[in-house]
Request: fold
Amino acid sequence: MRRKYTRWVGMLAMSAVLALFPACDIADELLQVDNPEELALDQLEDPSLMEVQVNGVIGMFKSALDDPILEFGNYHTDEVLTGLNWEDYARVSQRIISYLEGPTNAIWEQTHRALRQGNDLAEQIRVWKQEIADPDVDYEEPLATALVFAGYAAVIQADHMCQTVISPVPDEPSGTVLSNAENYAVALPYLQEALSIATTEGLSDIANLARLGLARAHLGRGEWSDAATFASQVTAGFEYWLEYIDISGARNPLQNTSHGGNFNKGIHPWFTGTHPSFDGTGLQFTDNVVDPQTDPRIQHWPSDRTGHNALTPLYKLFQGLRWADYTGETIAPSSAACPTCTGTDEDDMPLIAEYDTDFLLADYTEAQHHYYEALAMQSGNDAAVLAFVNTRRAVGNQAAAVGLTGQDLIDELRRQRAKDLFMGGFRTGDLRRWTRFDPGNGPFAGGSYFPTGTHPVTQWGDYGPWTCFPIPLQEYEGNPNLAKPLDPSVPPGI
Reply:
């Protein structure tokens, strides 16, 4: 089932809020700065606005996912390069991440807001359910939805933050710094309760979304058996889409990264399988990169251009499987080695993204990757993992089946995951997980999973050591229970 959510719903919801108040009074009083009490928060604590607030929770999660995570949460990986003419974002691309700067602040703030809003709405619905108990009101689906998106917010936060601080009571800041594993654990009770409610109520989409979130959280903690269990329960064919509309406030924000002379995102020339020099040992930007582009899941401009900073060579990205206008076509022409390649002109390939391009939050293919990675990290499952790998290779026009075992099989499984989940917000969490639980087997110097050595923009020098985003300065300044790091230039962990 193709389940969608659009940000435009949230805009309509605000219209519903305003419709509850006299239109003439609003028109007069919204222009007055001395009338802050007219739309007081307690007026929104009304069960008739439950749907509005659920849409707000999903909208807040979208704001956390589509802007900081999909926009720049992977700059320090081998997935993309940035051409933004902003120094702090360029430093992230160089794996130099500061607790003082914008990227760190944005990821921290947006994921925490999404988590807090989902949590608070869930608690409010519990109150309504107990105190009002209106038999004509469905409390269960809104509660499950608020919980599942709170859980997802915690998962993407754990994927990207080195550490975190979560205060159970907003006005009582916690002094407990959570590790990466503890951050994933924050997601578990939200997702478990969402799954329980959804299963009881027959809410199949929410149930599958919760299972996928649980599989991701358990993978992040290295709990392979639990991850496999939840991933295996996702219904075949399941899809959950976040929808965008070409209307102000409802547009896909990644449109700005790929269009016009100031575009600012391109594929990293070391990313697996789409360039002659993608092995991590060398680097070249080459015009007319056509023939290597046989895998429809990862396609890009044949030639590089510089964008926003007029410095970084960027191959503009075309849409992969996580994006609604994916075509399955290739820049590479049909050949004996790739008879199903299409030789599609670059001008006919959809860029990431148009204003109205929908994004796939979760689906069955993702569940299969979680399941087979969990199997691969346990012994005795090579045959099942190999069968899945060869199925995914066929999707990428890699027709010849391979016969791999051990680490070679795990490496190929990871390459297929990278292609299937390309630009889906997974890469940082994946590389960090492999670094923790399978160290030394990455493609870069010293077995690193993150790029090392000289940055592709040679003027920037060498890559730094960072793999995640630290607690930002704003939290240290606002939380009296925390002590600032002695040396904030040293990463606190993987």
